[in-house]
Amino acid sequence: MLNRVPLFLLYLNVLVIAICGLIYELLAGTLASYVLGDSVTQFSLVIGTYLSAMGVGAWLSRYIEQQLARAFIEIELALAFLGGISAPLLFVVFPWVDWFRPLLLGTVFSVGVFVGLELPLLMRILKEHLDFSDLVSRVLAFDYVGALIASILFPLVFIPYLGLVRTSLIFGILNACVGLWSTFLLRPLLSQKHVPGLRWRSLIVIGILILGLFRADQLTLIAEESTLGGKVIHTMRSPYQRIAITRKKGGFQLFINGNLQFNSVDEYRYHEALVHPAMVGLRVPKRVLVMGGGDGLAVREILKYPSVQEVLLVDLDPAMTELSKSFPPLVELNRSALLDPRVSIVNQDAFLWINHAVEPFDCVVIDFPDPSSFSIGKLYTSHFFRKLKAKLHEDSLVSIQSTSPLVAPKSYWCVIRTLESAGFSVRPYHATVPSFGIWGYALASLSKTDVDRFILPIAASDLRFLNDESLRDLFVFPQDIQELTPEINRLDNQALVRYYDEEWHGFD
Predict the structure, then answer these.
(1) Which of 295, 367, 370, 501 is catalytic?
(2) How far is residue 223's CA from residue 152's CA, in Å, rounded to a whole number?
(3) What is the average pLDDT across 36-45?
(4) What is the per-residue DSSP string for 91-102?
(5) Which helix (H) or strand (E) element contains residue 344?
(6) Closest CA to 42 of 51, 50, 34, 32
(7) Domains along the chain?
(8) DSSP 390-402
């Protein structure tokens, strides 16, 4: 019996179990979003699979009728091993198997079943020491407290500072330690012949996971090179995102959270199309606001205009802007744009910064990431665009990247219609960027803009893609890109994120 075992130690087990269980759930959802890209759908599918598997585990626990303590420890060790290796394993195999999604969901389901088995077994072990109402209330209280702790620390500490691979391995080790610790706590309920074997297996699992922890950087490097393609020449994790730079023959590529941001071979097409339509529509642009674009490539194009006196770059992540000022290949590519004395940088969420009172700008260039999540989708809402109007003169121009009108027409036209709903006059346009295909933009203003009069005022030698004729051709759409009238993207519906998930699902 457990009369000599302080009950709070068993409740501590419940707390740790709850934290580990929720961490595995969040890891699986985040991993699915990271490698598959379809963030909302994938996260929802993974979480639903995990929760249903927990229900299956709880139901299966009824069939374990003997040696409950031993069964509990064996389940802890199985969960520790499977949960601990899940993130590095799935990362590494992602590029090599065509059946990755079934593998992911199968792993999630297996982990969920083991998690679902834990608490029912532990409650049955404890039932002889507490009456039923105390047992349920205390166990569930510790379970919910553990879930709260995990949900707070996961986005604020574990992912920003440890990353997916280390977090997975550390919590696998923690689960295995629960198994080992339980061989002492539950010793009166264990057969003498089983204790040594359980302890040895616990130590073996802990040893394997610790070895993996020491090799976490190599595992992450292998996974990223397999997933992203090319040799990883620089990688880092900031509190906001994982940044990786890979090199292939002919150039290098920047990835954020596994999503390609640019290829140095053809980025000039993207950034010339993004910046110059807004700049040439102004007589003498002096003050320019750039939101997003922490790589400095849009700023590079803006600084080609001698009239520019001030550029304010608002980008969330200081790690990205610092990299753009210090990483030699990127500094060379952006021509030291972020080191120019005319450029000032504010590292803040643009959604919060937009509420600050500042003098109006002549031109605004918006280079946010694609709206693959609600946190980014809010930057494309009618609410945000209405706030933006206060930062403009009557004749100011705004350019904004707006995803592909060919692959994701509902997403593209959602951005256009949302700008219009906020009171902008909008001219849609597009360019061909080999790394991305047909890519869409919007030129917005508070009054109508005559793009037919646009003439590039800078020397042709400074541009590789655009001339006066090709500039005007950007605004001519081919027959296979037709205007649509999707929902407006508002804060309370995030229709754009839904469209983006639907349309980009399955595209690499």
Answers:
(1) 367
(2) 27
(3) 67
(4) HHHGGG-TTHHH
(5) strand 343-346
(6) 32
(7) 7-225 (1.20.1250), 227-261 (2.30.140.10), 265-504 (3.40.50.150)
(8) TTEEEEEEEEEE-
Give the CA count within 13 Å in the CB-facing half-sphere of 346.
16
State both tokens at 51. 């929760």
Residues in the chain: 508
The two tokens of residue 212 are 């993996």
- Output the pLDDT for position 8: 65
Indicate the DSSP class of residue 284: S
Residue 191 · residue 162 · CB < 8 Å? no
d(CA 460, CA 244): 33
Global confidence as pTM:
0.78
Q: Which residues contact 209 (CB under 8 A, 6 or more apart)?
A: 80, 81, 84, 85, 169, 172, 173, 176
Instruction: Output the CA angle 357-359-364, nearest 5 degrees.
Output: 100
Instruction: Report residue 35's pLDDT band, with 50, 70 and 90 as the boundaries.
Output: low
Question: Nearest CA to 251 among 426, 94, 435?
Answer: 435
Mean pLDDT calculated for residue range 366-375: 91
Torsional class of 400: left (φ above 0), alpha (ψ -120 to 50), beta (otherwise): beta
Four-residue CA torsion sign, 495, 498, 504, 508: positive
Kindly tell me if the per-residue pLDDT of 2 is higher than 60.
no
The answer to whether the CB of 120 falls within 8 A of the CB of 61 is yes
pLDDT computed for residue 46 by the predictor: 85
* Farthest-apart Cα atoms in the chain, separation: 89
Q: Tell me the sheet residues that pair with 232.
A: 246
Residues 19 and 22: their CA atoms lie apart, in Å, by 5
| CA separation for the pair 288, 301 (Å, rounded) | 12
Q: Please say if 367 is a catalytic residue.
A: yes
Residue 80 pLDDT more than 90? yes
| pLDDT for residue 164 | 83
Residue 334: both structure tokens together: 């952006």
Residues in CB range of 152: below 8 A, 6 or more apart? none
Give dist(CA 165, CA 90) in Å, integer.
Answer: 10
What is d(CA 102, CA 45) in angstroms, rounded to the nearest whole number?
Answer: 12
Q: By three-state DSSP, how is residue 241 classified?
A: coil
d(CA 483, CA 382): 19
User: What is the three-class DSSP state of 296?
Assistant: coil
CA atoms within 13 Å, Cβ hemisphere of 46: 25
The per-residue pLDDT for 240 is 83
CA–CA dist 159, 44 (Å, integer): 19
- Strands 343-346 and 425-433, by their bridges, are unpaired
